[in-house]
Structures are given as structure tokens and as C-alpha cells.
Amino acid sequence: MTVLQKKSDNPIAHLSPEDIEAIGFELDAIRQSVVDSRGESDAAYIRKVIDVQRKLELGSRAVLLFSKFPPAWLLGTAGLSVAKILENMEIGHNILHGQWDWMRDPKIHSTTWEWDMASPAEQWKHSHNELHHTYTNVIGKDNDLGYGIMRVDEDQKWVPLYLLQPVWNFVNAIFFEYGIAAYDLELGKNLATAERRADPGFRARGKQVLKKIRKQATKDYLVHPLLSGPSFLPTLAANFTANVVRNLWSHSVIMCGHFPEGVETFEKKSIDGETRGEWYLRQMLGSANISGSKAMHIMTGNLSHQVEHHLFPDLPSNRYAEIAPKIEDLFRRYGLRYHSASLPRQVGSAWHKVIRLSLPNGWLAQTNRSNAPAQVAKLYKMTTGGAKVRRQLQNAA
Questions:
Q1: Which has more confidence, 7 or 19?
Q2: CA–CA gap between residue 249 and residue 176 (Å, rounded)
Q3: CB half-sphere exposure, 117, CA atoms < 13 A
Q4: Helix axes 343-358, 165-174, angle to 10 degrees
Q5: Which residues are 289's β-sheet partners?
Q6: β-strands 289-291, 340-342: how paired?
Q7: How much is the pLDDT for 49?
Q8: Which of 318, 248, 374 is nearest to 38 (CA)?
Q9: Cβ of 337: how many Cβ atoms within 10 Å?
Q10: What gap in Å lies between CA 59 and CA 64, rounded to an integer?
Q11: What does the pLDDT average to over 257-278?
Q12: Distances (CA, A) of 156 to 57, 333, 357
């Protein structure tokens, strides 16, 4: 049975094993209906998105040849930012998931596509497709949950270092593509010991990442600025800005899908003997959607339908909106919360959780204007007083 982290309110307590397997059967049927109806209109969709993205990038880079003029810089930078977001989210992420492999087009296939990111496609597919989507929101198994650098649940032991969590989450957002590359390498773990640092597999993967970063940096920060001639520096700044915009957007979308308040996390034992229905249930509880327009859904790579994506990561992204009402109805009939809200609300909720979990359990909820000085003094003692003091103060709360 799927086991949540220790919660006072269990959102699946009312479900029987038969209910969970019935959910699985319904979801299998929904998936099969999409598989059976994939066709030319879907293929035309992804080809059109790729065509629009490439023309937008080419046109934006052409405008940036004149980027020493502020209007051209603004227009070119905005267009390049959108082009990079499209390439990363709706195109690269979804092609590398194998969503379009059924087309048997060697140019749009998970085995041949390389994307405009620091992380090599093969390494990302392993850490994301094979690990994250298998162990979704299982603490200690799913490194996508907090990217392996954040406290993501109250049951994780709090230490003073977590006070910096909001800072390094923001830094990670700015340089997100490099954070993902480091995460794919499991850099922290593999640099921890001389034995791991010397591992031939790790060293080979590290060289692949450095080669990819060098290629991306040469393209964005040397070749294209040089082609701009007297607009070298403005074009370089435009490329850097577009990469940061893409990184911030991608980070925000992923945070919204995985980290808002109310999204569940799970114990390691949750996957012991896990059935197909229980795996589906874990995806349902461990995801959140973003409501919005069709344009917004495309710009998020349809990860605004994160619930549907976690359930069916290999279905064409353009079909998620079609099946979302069926999934929401399934939630309603089985008394489960279909977690969906606007982008500002989900971003705010995710950052609230980041800040809340950077502090000792309950500290933020217990703090108000009248007791703020005492709470700050308590936090100072917990930060500087050692493990024994932290336990005493935490237990006295």
C-alpha cells in the first residue's frame, strides 16, 4: 500500500486496495485511448512547433545583429528567450521522454535529439526518465524532489544549513541548466570521496558535461556575438539574458508541478511491492497543475498538466489537455484533491514551502508580530547551540 510520510491527515485513508486497482484500470484505459488515436494531427503539431521555434530563434538572432540599438536588443532578447523556452520545454523535454518516438522520424526521436541545455541528453534521460519518473516524490530515491539539495518534508531532520535553502534555490533557478547537469552527475555524492572521484564512469560523464557546456558557451557567448560585429557585447548580454530567462521559467514551472503546499511525499517503503494502481496513485498525489491559457500550456511544455504528465510521461504533450477533464473527474469520484491553481499561486505556494522547510518545524506558523523577538532568539539558539539544544527547543515547542 502506498505509504505517505507521517501525516496527521491521510488523504487516501478512505481508499481500499480494490479502489486503488480500479483507479489503475481506468487510467490504463485512458492511456490506451490516446495511444490508439495518435496520428497525423499529432505529428503535424510537433513539426509545427519545431518549425516555429527555429524560425523564431533565427529571426531573433538576426535582429540581434543590430543589438547595439536598444529597441533591437529588447526585441531580439525577448524573441530568443521565448525560442529557448520552447526548445527546452515543449520540444526537448518531451522528445527526450519518447513522446514522439511512435512517429519513427529519426530527426524527432529520443535516441537522436540533443537539446540546448548544459546537460547531455543521455545523462538527463537516465536521471529524469528512469529515476525521477519511477520514484516520483519518494524521499531518498527521487533526487528531482528538491534536486537533492533542499529539505522537502517535515520528517527530514532540520539543521542550520537549511536556513540558506531559499538563497541556494534562487541561485539554482538562475543557473538552472548547470544545476541540472550537476544533479545528473550526482556531483555532490561523486566528489565526496577519492574513490568516487576516480571512478572511470563518473570521469567519463564529467567530460561529456564539460564538452556540452563548452559547446553551448561557444555558440551563445562567442560565435553569435562575433557574427554581430560591433554589436558583440550587446548580443553577448542578450544571449546571457535569454538563458537566464529560460532557466528561471523552467525552474518555476518544475517547482509548481512538484513542490506546492499539499503535494505529497512518500516513504521509501512506499514502493515495496507497489502495484500498478499504487504507482498511479503516487503520481496523482505527488503532482500539481497550473491553470491558464493554451499559450501558457505550450510555453510550459504542457508541464502545466503535471498530473497528467506524471501519469503518462510518454504520451504526446498536446493530448494532456484533452484527457485532463477525465483525470479530474477520476479524482473527484474517488475523493482525492486535483491540485490545480494559477501560475502566481503555485509559484507563491512552492516558495512558501521552500521558506517554511528552511526553518525548524512549526517555527513559521508559531511566529507572529507579538512574539517575533522571542522566536528569533529561539531560532538563534537552535542555530548556534548544537544538536542537543535543537532537540530540547524543538521538543518544547
A1: 19
A2: 10
A3: 31
A4: 140
A5: 340
A6: parallel
A7: 98
A8: 318
A9: 14
A10: 9
A11: 88
A12: 44, 33, 9
